[in-house]
Amino acid sequence: MNEFKPRKIKFKAWNEEEQLLVLLNSLECHRGELVKRNHILLQFTGFRDKEGEEIYDRDVLLIDYDKYLVFWDDAKKGWFYCSLDKPTGALPFHEATAKTMRRFCSHFELMKKELKLPKR
Questions:
Q1: How far apart (Å, rounded) are the C-alpha atoms in residues 93 and 90?
Q2: Please, what is the Cα angle at 18 between 14 and 21, to 5 degrees?
């Protein structure tokens, strides 16, 4: 039997006060739950895009000019993705799928940019 090697669990976080995506150097653990005050934790999916960039929860990915959102589905216990234009019909997110996409930005960064765009 192969020796057990736990997978590395990594996080980034959206700092709600500063409105910035940040790398973390520490987290607190309360009753088994990881927390960072005033931050939304974004877990590494374990997958990389076609350019080798790490993909995290709530990342926006591109296939050509189409945008997709990656997220964890608690009910189905897995990573999924859906079109930002048509959020219904989520599909399972696998390594093979990730390698066909390119990371664009975090969903939070996208929302921040869209809020700052001038109104037409």
A1: 9
A2: 30
CA atoms within 13 A on the CB side of 94: 3
Global confidence as pTM: 0.86
How far apart (Å, rounded) are the C-alpha atoms in residues 81 and 69? 5
26: buried, middle or exposed (CB in 10 Å: 19+, 13-18, 0-12)? Answer: exposed
Q: Would residue 46 count as lying in a domain? A: yes
| Structural domains counted in the chain | 1
pLDDT tens digits for range 65-98: 999 999 999 999 999 999 998 878 899 999 999 9
Residue 5 placed within a domain:
no
